[in-house]
Amino acid sequence: MSTEVRVPTLGESVTEATVATWFKKPGDTVAADEMLCELETDKVTVEVPSPVAGTLGEIVAAEGDTVGVDALLATISEGQGAAPAPAPDKAEDTPKAAGSGSASGGSVDVMVPTLGESVTEATVSTWFKQVGDSVTQDEMLCELETDKVSVEVPAPASGTLSEIIAGEGDTVQAGGKLAVMASGDGAAAAAPAKSEAAPAAASGEPSGKDVEDAPSAKKAMAEKGITADQVQGSGRDGRVMKEDVARAAAAATAAAPAASAQPAQAPRAPVPADDAAREERVKMTRLRQTIARRLKDSQNTAAMLTTYNEVDMTEVMALRNAYKDEFQKKHGVKLGFMSFFTKACCHALKEVPEVNAEIDGTDIVYKNFVHMGIATGTPTGLVVPVIRDADSLSFADIEKAIAEKGARARDGKLSMAEMQGGTFTISNGGVYGSLMSSPILNPPQSGILGMHKIQQRPMVMNGEIVARPMMYLALSYDHRIVDGKGAVTFLVRVKDALEDPRRLLMDL
Fold first, then answer.
1. How far apart (Å, rounded) are the C-alpha atoms in residues 10 and 42?
2. pTM (2 decimals)?
3. Taxonomically, which superkingdom (predicted)?
4. Active site residues
5. DSSP character at residue 501
6. Tens of pLDDT, residues 7-35
7. 494 and 433 in a common domain
């Protein structure tokens, strides 16, 4: 029986990839989920696992070939003679293949789970168990941290944790091995055996210095005049990928003016010894590094500008106070201000569609829908869950979605899919007491609305000075496609809808 190996889904808007490396040759035995090859797209590297155990037959797409989604890569022959042979660098005391869940002294590999669309690696943040600990099936073993979310890894079977391969702080690839468990009656005996075998296995591992680089990376290095020793590889076993070459070239370009402007190489000013003793140095989490990079990229890429207005919250507050009890009783969720602002923004985006658009090369892509991003602060950093088709949702549906996604964000349970595809973002700094700020765009979006603290201020109403609950609004926008007129019009429409909420009901 023959099984086809095809190109998996490559990510949103990605339709083709280049075959970077084959890890197996025709005739090699492979286990189910063992990595066969690595594909390289414009953005990420994708590993292709074996769908079944068997023998690799024909390789249809060779290294360097360009393939589309669902294209045929290779075939695998299944059958009695196709069972995977033991890896040569493993000790003979590993009785079962990877992923085996058989009892009676078998071993079970703990693998990195699927991390989400376009996410290929993670950092091991915490191990909840140590070597020798007994674990039950589905008990949490460790926690991984990606650019966006935290992923908990449960035990695939009951047994004893016999070896931890990826320690805390290590970077692991999607589908990589984290640990080995001994299951069944031989669990206790397997743990020390695996520990003794580990050094031998480690010594047999390749150093990574003679790993073949991706074909596209070799071509890019030749074009840019960069040697392999100048590039830090991020692929499997340290393999240099095309994006690694691009990063190295950008770093070299940036380093030249920096070196002339700053002769001293010290990254920071000298710190007195007594001050240094009281400092604490903590490595940035992957999420914090991603936040820093994306925010700076946004400032460097977009022609960002911010315009301001203020809104009288009297009518919204009165409407909310009048119906909040009935609203909660009927819908089971509190009536907050975010649903009013979401509705007001959806209303304004219909009139000023360029604020709901994005730039793609030399094209402007207008979105005839609103996927609203709601910036949410969490203990680990800022995330932006997306409420899809917010323009077609009711107040109750919006409030339920915000409450549910906010709770998942704070617990670190959001998936990558829940944070992708947003067309516009709302950020509420007012919950922290912010009176005025300029929010930074969330690429590739062209607009973000900043909400702020509601504060009683003296206002002139009908010739008299009265105290009114006022809020400053800030719209940061990409001036490349949004003109000042459009930005101001958007803010005025939001202001009008909030100061007279009846306009939302009548679509005015």
1. 10
2. 0.51
3. Bacteria
4. 479, 483
5. T
6. 888 766 677 888 888 888 888 888 888 88
7. yes
